[in-house]
Amino acid sequence: MRFSDLAIDDHEIAMLRRVHAYACSLRELEPESEEGARTGRMLFHLYQQGVRSELALKRMLTTGDTAPGIDTD
């Protein structure tokens, strides 16, 4: 794996922030709380596993639906 495969650009960071804010807001969590941080870790894990769609990430974090082949444990 190359470093460029691991790098996250500004557009992707902005999208991840939107998804995190959305998921925390919907679940009435403070983003900086322990549960908010756990949500952020789950989001980053999903992203690292290849989930790149903003809509899919939002759905997975708020409804618990996961993409086929993605293990979030």
Overall strand count: 0
Strand content: under 5%
The number of helical segments is 4
Radius of gyration: 12 Å
- Report the order of strands and helices: HHHH
Morphology? globular
- Mean pLDDT score, rounded? 87
Query: Uncertain regions: pLDDT < 50 for 5+ in a row?
Result: none
Range of helix content: 55-70%
| Termini gap | 23 Å
**Classification by helices and strands:** mainly alpha
Biggest sheet overview = none
Question: What's this model, at a glance?
Answer:
This protein is mainly α and 73 residues long. It is 63% helix and 0% strand. Helix 2 packs across helix 3.
Which helices and strands appear, and what pairs or packs with what?
Blueprint: H1 3-6, H2 10-26, H3 34-48, H4 54-63
Helix pairs in contact: 2-3, 2-4
Keywords: Plasmid
Structural notes for this entry:
There is one protein chain. The two termini are 23 Å apart. This protein has 73 residues and is an all-alpha fold. The chain has helices spanning 3-6, 10-26, 34-48, 54-63. Keywords: Plasmid.
Properties at a glance:
73 residues, mainly alpha, 4 helices, 63% helix, 0% strand, globular, plasmid
